[in-house]
Amino acid sequence: MNPTVIRPSVSPKTITKVTRLFNGTIGDILGELLQNSRRAGASRIDIACCADHDGARLTLVDDGTGVADPQTMIALGDSGWSQHIHEAEDPAGMGVFSLAGKETRISSRHTDADIGWSVHVPADGWTGAQDIAVQPLARPVGTTISFLMPGVSEQTTERILREVAKFYPLPVFFNGTEMPREDFLAKAIYIAEWNGSQIGVFAGREYHQDPTANFHGMVLTRKLASVSESLGGKTYHARLDIGATPGLALVLPARKEFVENAAFAALQAACKRTIYAALAHRGQHRLSFENWKEARDLGVALPEADPCLPRWHAAIAESDNVNVEYEEIAAGADTILVTDLEPDIAQGLERALRDHPLRPHLVENHPAYAGYGWYDALHQLGNVRFYVAAGERDHVIAENGSFPPLDDHVRAETIELRFCVFHRASETQREERISADVAFVVGEDGWYSGIDQIRIAYVPGPALTPETLVDLIENVCFCANDDSEADSWDTQHEHFLRDARELAARVLLGEDEAIAARIRDTLAGILWVIPKDRQVAITVAPGTAINVQLSACQPAG
């Protein structure tokens, strides 16, 4: 018959597997032993290291309160610490078992005892299969642990101890030299107390292996909380210097991760709240409206984000290669948001507005700020259209194409840019009309297929030169193919510019000049073969050989 009641238990056989349960690195071992010395109230720890056989023998000495009962030192899961330590730190009673499988000597004298004791645990003595003799020993109050660490040199031990002792709260000496220590929150821009611990806020992104929590010198890399500003790219993250914080627990036996419990969830919320408190203390920020609301829900009253936005620049097809100066301007009553526009419309708009009084007031649309009062009150530019008058057939070019379609490039008598400026708060709008000299239409697949799908409407004039048009064509539709089989970016760009120069010459100057432009581009690649003191005349007639004549350079007239 099955029992009606059961209770969890630990099998006595567990102790026989202890050398496989605990097989820590030298860093793990030193970290565990330093934690024990700290809990024992030590004021300093001295570690000596000397070569021994094929490894190193390490001896750790502390001046703490010592251990009264040697049995607690080698009792798995029974730490023997006071109730205060249990409540504050949740010790697991596994620290000394980091030495399991290593030949170890331990001696100690408790502060209330007249004499100390010593034990020798052989390498195979950790499984509970043999008795360990306890010898009386006259010694000072405190504890000494000596063990053999195979395969480790003195230099390696010192290097690792420097990391272990880096954020440890007590002085640690190695072969008589004090190890350097740092304040875990030294570079924090803001520090807050939380449940007996300290949360620090740091500016900048976290790297994968950056420590984020310090448990009295034992560091963890679990990310706690971070917040990125919506503009400017600044990121803030939280780190925790753990004190006496009941509830927080570490996953055993390695203690490299937090236990996912209610206390850890509260910690994560506290870290996020502290980041927002740091920004409130600074008095300004560039958080999204969603982050602003999250701060409010966490009890942190933040002002609205700084009323600054990036100056508007027309989008280009090669969006990863934008080469414009980033500039922010203060948003005010005259500021106008520009809705997201595709490069073909945006480039024509920007050119038409280059000398217009509205141009300095145009800023980038930033939807993450929607909800802030100052942002929602701004004007917005939209409904951009180009009205092309070309003889008996007029066209309207808008964001969704051309009506009727531009089947080819169009030489126009006039091009008029029209757009609306909306005042969102009052739900009113006005239409602006401005003369333009060029407008573009790109086919649906035009971004990745060269310039064969671009259509240009233009008004001839001295301001619209072939060089200017080449730049515009590049901005509108050059986007390098990053396929592994494609040519390099430089090669693709060079070929595109060659085609763009030919197109610009054909559109603005005629077919003959387009042919001449292609010939010039072709010859530009072989100019190096012509001596600097010679000039070349090339004559090509249909059906005849190419005639090349070299002559001395004529002196400048």
Describe it.
InterPro entries: HATPase_C_sf. This is ATP-binding protein. The protein has 12 helices and 28 strands. The chain is of the alpha+beta class. It folds into 4 domains: 5-178, Histidine kinase-like ATPase, C-terminal domain (Heat Shock Protein 90), CATH 3.30.565; 190-298, no CATH class; 309-521, no CATH class; 526-552, no CATH class. Strands 5-4-3-6-2-1-7-8 form an 8-stranded mixed sheet, covered by helices on one side. Strands 17, 18, 19, 20, 21, 23 and 24 form a 7-stranded mixed sheet that branches. The N and C termini lie far apart (119 Å). The model is unreliable at 5-11 and 15-21 (pLDDT under 50).
Q: Level of helix content?
A: 10-25%
Domain module tally? 4
Query: Which structural class fits the helix and strand makeup?
Result: alpha+beta
Name the poorly predicted regions. 5-11, 15-21
Strand order of the largest sheet: 5-4-3-6-2-1-7-8
First-residue to last-residue Cα separation = 119 Å
Shape: elongated
Count of DSSP helices? 12
The largest sheet is: 8 strands, mixed
Oligomer: single chain
